[in-house]
Specification:
The complex is a heterodimer.
Chain A lengths: L1 H14 L9 H28 L6 H29 L8 H7 L6 H35 L10 H65 L17 H19 L8 H16 L1 H29 L18 H12 L3 H16 L1 H21 L16 H22 L5 H9 L5 H31 L1 H24 L15 H26 L3 H36 L1
Helix pairs in contact in A: 1-5, 2-5, 3-5, 3-6, 3-7, 3-8, 5-6, 6-7, 6-9, 6-12, 7-9, 10-11, 11-12, 11-15, 12-13, 13-15, 13-16, 13-17, 15-16, 16-18, 17-18
Chain B lengths: L7 E10 L2 E11 L4 E5 L6 H9 L6 E6 L2 E2 L5 H6 E4 L11 H11 L4 H14 L15 H13 L5 E5 L7 H16 L3 E6 L2 H7 L2 E6 L2 E7 H5 L7 H8 L4 H13 L3
Parallel strand pairs in B: 3-8, 3-9, 6-7, 7-8
Antiparallel strand pairs in B: 1-2, 1-4, 4-5, 9-10
Helix pairs in contact in B: 3-4, 3-5
The chains are: A mainly alpha, B alpha/beta.
């Protein structure tokens, strides 16, 4: 009874994560839950089409193709689970608040810890099941839909999919829990509380970059899994899990009938069949290795977790949520150099400190920058570290990098400023009601523009090394002007940035992919225009001039609208 | 266990952090029916001592006994017998006031059927009945403090450990709290009342311990401590003991505030 009460309470804590702000938390969680179900559904259908469009489907081709799909499913399950565990960073172990509240109640500490572990395992399992349920039920039947055979053969295929993606999810979750607990043990509670937030942000950033990259880079045949030494070190955990699938599913695929194939296809099928079925023993060994490593990881994580939970930790609440180290002094110096007006300075510093210190705001900005970084790596792999080009013409794909990064950065800040820093922040603004909101907005906007300029400056040395100083300077000017316009657009509709929450739309799940595609197209078009502009200095001046003019226009109209809205509220009062 | 054997005793408690003693050699006894004031300036080690008494923190040296039994570091039976109001309003913001109290009652293994009317009655008397279903994140500091008080009282503890319980409460609620503490003491409950508000301690407590820089500098009755100050005021005596010069410090602060140069 008491155990059940504690487990339910801890499960509740996972849902009431600091990722979503108090206001509209449940709406944001509903959107996230819908995304968790619908995105894997779309992905499964998309990945299964190739099987349905294959009238002469053969076992060898099916085995190799399914293995490729399984690599994507396992990678996604592993990375999403790890990302969710990172989002739950503070809730993974007993918090100082738990210690103060539960530590004085007549409940043995061991019972509290057991309940916490049980809640953690339940949450991880429920999440991994929710993420993989539709792919588990849909992908195996669709992969063998063209074969006429015993329908009972579907059972091991479904089991193989469930076990492999489940293992991957467990692996991702256990890795983050193990890392957190290991760092806690290594650094001690005081140092961990100081640097934990920064580590969490860096980890989340890396996971999100990999998450966006994984489906793009891994789609296709995973024949590298069957070659000796062919598995890249970063993909080893994914390969172990996919190998578990192959070890189980391979036996089923082996007995499927081969249709009469034309000579060319028969040759290819014979090659794939040999490659797949002859390597099954190697894959079995890989699967066993994976299971053993996962078991070892789970045992080690549990040991460190239980060791850390031997006593209650009572650090003052909030100490773990400190912002990125050194942000305060840097932001003070930047704010002082950029503006002397108190309200503008307040807006700028409020933005910097909220994004650095508030977990939900930090997650928004991190997630968007990570997506931008992943898109740059995918769309313009040479752009960031392009070889010196001499007189060669600059490609549009190289120019895309800066524009993409700036778009992602501003989109992240847009999401952050549309979210209240704290419900109490709204009260503070209620007390400090004045006509100075324009100055406050200006400060917030200045913060976003400063981030844009910092990004342009950070990219400048790479571009200068690749294209020479004059082209890099022109590109930087264009980037700064474009970033300025983007910042104005992002801030335009927000009357009280960081004070009022504007919840995300319910339709985001359905239009999100379309929106992302539209942004990519706009970025490509802008980069193509910029490429033409870079051919002459007048072109650069024109490009930057148009952007700045547009930015000024957006600012003028948005401020006019905000003033009108404020005036109408005064009239109503 | 006879009723008068229910004595809480701190024996030479010491807590060190990185070699620095935050609490040094603190010893006292608290008997049923007694209200012991625990006074000291901010950072003097009051809350730390209370955390050692409740078992939240292990002392570096010394021990805690209750009814002669060692309860250092916490003991399940001892935890059933005390109620604790911490200095900071530690509550789960995502729960409502009633959900929080139900959770605490459940974890104390209190029978739900008997506890429901008691919780309802306490919520009503503390003026929280209307806000009982609201999320705690929307509570004021005073409302949070009242929720903590109900959680500490609902199981009728023999011993109450209150760490600045008046924090955030309005004047009316502070008066109710004072009377409540007095009535509970009259009914045989032992109360350890930590505060830095001298007036509350002066009006309530039969005995006072003054702590400064982690050390007990006085342990005696309110009247005996008053004699330290020439004016006979406990406030002044406390300032003298804590080596504070409130007049000059206040002037310095006012100078900073009003100086616009």
């Amino acid at each position: 009874m008491r155990r059940r009460l504690l487990v339910r309470h801890f499960l509740n804590q996972f849902v009431e994560n600091d990722f979503a702000p108090d206001v509209d938390r449940h709406q944001i969680l509903a959107v996230a839950a819908a995304a968790l179900i619908t995105l894997p559904l779309f992905a499964t259908i998309f990945m299964s089409v190739k099987f349905l469009m294959q009238p002469l489907q053969s076992p060898g081709w099916t085995g190799i193709t399914t293995m490729g799909d399984q690599v994507v499913f396992c990678a996604t399950s592993l990375l999403v689970s790890a990302a969710i565990a990172t989002l739950e960073w503070d809730a993974l172990a007993l918090s100082p608040r738990d210690s103060v509240i539960l530590g004085v109640l007549p409940v043995p500490r061991e019972e509290i810890v057991r309940a916490k572990v049980l809640a953690l395992v339940t949450f991880a399992a429920a999440f991994v099941i929710a993420l993989n349920a539709l792919p588990i039920l849909l992908h195996p039947p669709l992969t063998v839909a063209n074969f006429r055979g015993n329908p009972l053969l579907l059972i091991p295929l479904i089991a193989a999919h469930a076990i492999s993606t489940g293992l991957a999810g467990a692996f991702g979750f256990a890795c983050v829990v193990g890392l957190r607990e290991f760092l806690f043990l290594l650094l001690g509670e005081r140092l961990f509380a100081r640097v934990g937030g920064t580590i969490r942000s860096a980890l989340l950033f890396s996971l999100l970059v990999l998450l966006v990259l994984a489906p793009i880079r891994l789609v296709g045949r995973a024949t590298w899994m069957l070659e000796p030494g062919g598995i890249p070190p970063l993909l080893e955990p994914v390969a172990w899990c996919a190998a578990v699938h192959t070890a189980i599913a391979g036996r089923v695929l082996e007995v499927l009938p081969t249709p009469d194939l034309p000579e060319r296809l028969a040759g290819e099928e014979s090659r794939l069949r040999t490659l797949y079925f002859h390597n099954l023993p190697r894959v079995n060994a890989l699967a066993l290795k994976g299971v053993a490593i996962l078991a070892g990881l789970l045992a080690l994580s549990t040991m460190i977790y239980l060791r850390n939970a031997r006593r209650f930790h009572l650090l003052p609440e909030g100490q773990g949520a400190v912002g990125l180290l050194g942000v305060s002094s840097v932001s003070d110096a930047v704010a002082s150099s950029l503006t002397r007006r108190p309200a503008t300075r307040a807006g700028l510093l409020f933005l910097v400190r909220t994004v650095a210190g508030n977990p939900s705001h930090r997650v928004y900005v991190t997630a968007f920058i990570a997506t931008g970084m992943a898109l740059v790596i995918t769309m313009a792999p040479d752009a960031l570290f392009a070889a010196p080009g001499g007189d060669r013409p600059i490609r549009t794909s190289e120019l895309v990098a800066q524009t993409l990064m700036l778009t992602a950065l501003v989109a992240g800040f847009r999401a952050a400023i549309r979210t209240s820093a704290d419900t109490r922040a709204a009260w503070v603004f209620g007390i400090a009601e004045s006509s100075n909101h324009g100055e406050f907005r200006k400060g917030v906007r200045l913060g976003v523009i400063a981030a844009v300029i910092a990004t342009v400056v950070a990219l400048f040395p790479l571009h200068a090394a690749a294209w020479g100083l004059s082209v890099a300077t022109a590109h930087a000017i264009n980037g700064a002007a474009l970033g300025w316009l983007l910042a104005e657009v992002a801030c335009a509709s927000v009357e009280r940035p960081l004070v009022w929450t504007i919840p995300p739309s319910d339709g985001l799940n359905t239009v999100g992919v379309v929106l992302l595609a539209a942004i990519v197209i706009v970025v490509l078009v802008l980069s193509a225009i910029e490429r033409m502009a870079l051919t002459a200095s007048a072109g650069t001046a024109a490009f930057a001039g148009v952007m700045l003019l547009a930015a000024a226009g957006v600012r003028y109209f948005s401020e006019r609208n905000h003033r009108a809205a404020a005036d109408s509220r005064v009239l109503v009062r | 266990m006879t009723p008068d054997s229910r004595t809480l005793e701190a024996h030479h408690l010491v807590k060190r952090f990185h070699g620095h003693a935050a609490v040094s050699n603190v010893s006292f006894a608290l008997r049923p029916g007694e209200i012991l004031g625990y006074l000291g300036p901010n950072g003097s080690g009051k809350s730390l001592t209370l955390k050692m008494l409740t078992g939240l923190i292990d002392p570096t040296e010394g021990r805690v006994t209750y009814s002669g039994i060692d309860v250092t570091g916490g003991n399940l039976d001892f935890r059933r017998r005390f109620g604790y109001v911490p200095e900071e309003p530690h509550l789960y913001p995502f729960l409502s006031g009633r959900e929080y109290l139900d959770l605490v009652a459940g974890l104390r293994d209190l029978p739900t059927r008997a506890m429901r009317p008691r919780i309802d009655a306490l919520l009503e008397r503390f003026g929280l009945a209307e806000a009982a279903e609201q999320s705690i994140s929307a509570y004021s500091k005073g409302m949070k403090q009242k929720t903590l008080l109900i959680a500490a009282l609902m199981h009728d503890p023999e011993l109450l450990i209150l760490d600045e319980p008046e924090s955030g409460l309005d004047v009316g609620s502070i008066l109710v709290l004072r009377h409540l503490v007095r009535v509970l003491a009259e009914r045989g409950r032992a109360i350890l009342y930590s505060s830095h508000i001298v007036e509350n301690v002066e009006r309530l407590c039969t005995r006072v311990i003054v702590l400064s820089a982690g050390r007990v500098i006085v342990d005696g009755s309110v009247d005996s401590i008053r004699t330290i100050a020439p004016s006979g005021s406990l406030e002044e005596a406390f300032a003298t003991l804590a080596a504070q010069q409130p007049d000059s410090l206040a002037s310095e602060i006012a100078d900073i505030v009003t100086n616009h140069a």
